[in-house]
Amino acid sequence: MSLARRRPGSVLWMVLGVGVPLAFLAVFFVWPVLAIIGRGLFGEGPLLEVLTRPRTLRLIGLTLAQAAIASVVCVLVGLPIAHVLYRLRFRGRGLLRALVIVPFVLPTVVVGVAFRTLLREGGLLGFLQLDGTFPAILLALVFFNIAVVVRTVGGTWEGLDSRQEEAARVLGAGPVRVFLTITIPRLSGSIVAAASIVFLFCSTAFGVVLVLGGTRFGTIETEIWLLTTQFLDLRAASVLSITQLIVVFGMLLLAARARGRSTAQRRVAARLSSRPPRRSDALPIAVAVVTALLLALPIVSLLLRSLQTRDGWGLGNYLALSGTGTRNALVVPVWTALGNSLAAAAQATVLAVVIGLCASLVLSRTPRSARGRRALEWFDGALMLPLGVSAVTVGFGFLITLNQPPLDLRSSPILVPIAQALVALPLVVRTVLPILRGIDPRLREAAAVLGSAPWRVMRDVDLAVVARPALAASGLAFAVALGEFGATSFLSRPDRPTLPVVIFRLIGLPGGDNFGMAIAAAVVLAAVTVLVIALVERLRVGTIGAF
């Protein structure tokens, strides 16, 4: 163990760096999840009675079907896009790469509202008559998750050596055979990893499904929300939460195995790669442009519809955001809800970044003993647990645990930021930790030998190096918290609603004015989110790379 770690002050930092994150997870994650499991397994009534209900079976099947179909479509559509954007060179490629990422960073409520405006009667694609149908949900899920496939597979594909394919063509193999027998096997790890992540996101796409499908095409998550908020059937909601936990953790294990295989493929590709991507001809460029237009269509439709009022084109919907809607549909004006969202996101960002930095500083060290290394691996895995539980389950768990002394937080404004911080914490760790692990440990040891106290070593070495990535992690956490809807839909109070909750409420109320306000509010939320993510990208920290 290094000299810096033998100091008493260093031990204190280590204890705080481990104790604070673990205490946070224990109180606000482990306890609520275990409470859900306990209520589901040992509550009143037989467990199988809930699972064998016709509606429950239909919703489980619908959840798995929608996630599976959307994953397959994302892979089929994403592979050619990844080839164009990562294997070919042409002017404007960087702009198209950025455009592909935009749908993924949008809040799920915004994506749902955008497709409502696109597919409803009078929308740009209203003639397809898909509004309120199962294909509409699939289209929105593919739109939302296509970036995962493009970025994950494209990153591997970009580094592959093209000489194997060229040699096969010289020997007489056709393009299809080359692709199926040489390219696909080398990309298989990345493809499986991307597909499993897409499946995970699609099976927990609460906001998109709730806005587009309602209760008709509900999923496990929307049913949990319905059983809790409408029917107060907490036992059935707990059983469904357990079911979802099993599905999600299964996909996480598959994604972890595939990601390890994908990482190995990238390392091999990096060693073998010797040629830059080749220049493209007109056809791939045309494919890329058409793809960009299709991805931009829902956003353009949302923006155009926000400018349509009963009196024609104008800013009436935006001006109405200072009010409470037709017949006082809202308790507070939309701009107040935006202020609530910004405040909650800022608090969640502070929590996630402080706890994430504490944990990352500990994880960046390499103990000499095998037991110490194993302990850090378990600690790292514990920090990633919130990725394996949907935000809906977190919000539901808060409702049934944080409602009595000594932690009665039902009326506390900090409850929403805590839930949002849980969602953002793994992303902060995954953004900051690789930078800290890249620091030469001899720098810390030299500073300690020169007499620097542990806190000063940490300040002058670790925090100095990680300052810029920490800013990017803060922006990423802020954007995630700003658009979070799953947990917030359970926890947001009527007098302190967040903007996603207000948008959902407005689209569920009658009246064209309320719907127009919802669309304008969605544009505002999308603009703020994209602006924050643009700042993150400017700091050279990828959004999807955090996965």
From TrEMBL:
<dbReference type="Pfam" id="PF00528">
    <property type="entry name" value="BPD_transp_1"/>
</dbReference>
<feature type="transmembrane region" description="Helical">
    <location>
        <begin position="234"/>
        <end position="256"/>
    </location>
</feature>
<protein>
    <submittedName>
        <fullName>Iron ABC transporter permease</fullName>
    </submittedName>
</protein>
<feature type="transmembrane region" description="Helical">
    <location>
        <begin position="414"/>
        <end position="436"/>
    </location>
</feature>
<feature type="transmembrane region" description="Helical">
    <location>
        <begin position="135"/>
        <end position="154"/>
    </location>
</feature>
<comment type="similarity">
    <text>Belongs to the binding-protein-dependent transport system permease family.</text>
</comment>
<keyword id="KW-0472">Membrane</keyword>
<dbReference type="InterPro" id="IPR035906">
    <property type="entry name" value="MetI-like_sf"/>
</dbReference>
<feature type="domain" description="ABC transmembrane type-1">
    <location>
        <begin position="338"/>
        <end position="536"/>
    </location>
</feature>
<feature type="domain" description="ABC transmembrane type-1">
    <location>
        <begin position="60"/>
        <end position="255"/>
    </location>
</feature>
<keyword id="KW-0813">Transport</keyword>
<feature type="transmembrane region" description="Helical">
    <location>
        <begin position="12"/>
        <end position="37"/>
    </location>
</feature>
<feature type="transmembrane region" description="Helical">
    <location>
        <begin position="282"/>
        <end position="304"/>
    </location>
</feature>
<feature type="transmembrane region" description="Helical">
    <location>
        <begin position="57"/>
        <end position="82"/>
    </location>
</feature>
<feature type="transmembrane region" description="Helical">
    <location>
        <begin position="465"/>
        <end position="487"/>
    </location>
</feature>
<dbReference type="InterPro" id="IPR000515">
    <property type="entry name" value="MetI-like"/>
</dbReference>
<feature type="transmembrane region" description="Helical">
    <location>
        <begin position="94"/>
        <end position="115"/>
    </location>
</feature>
<feature type="transmembrane region" description="Helical">
    <location>
        <begin position="383"/>
        <end position="402"/>
    </location>
</feature>
<feature type="transmembrane region" description="Helical">
    <location>
        <begin position="515"/>
        <end position="536"/>
    </location>
</feature>
<keyword id="KW-0812">Transmembrane</keyword>
<dbReference type="GO" id="GO:0055085">
    <property type="term" value="P:transmembrane transport"/>
</dbReference>
<keyword id="KW-1133">Transmembrane helix</keyword>
<feature type="transmembrane region" description="Helical">
    <location>
        <begin position="191"/>
        <end position="214"/>
    </location>
</feature>
<keyword id="KW-0997">Cell inner membrane</keyword>
<feature type="transmembrane region" description="Helical">
    <location>
        <begin position="342"/>
        <end position="363"/>
    </location>
</feature>
<dbReference type="GO" id="GO:0005886">
    <property type="term" value="C:plasma membrane"/>
</dbReference>
<keyword id="KW-1003">Cell membrane</keyword>
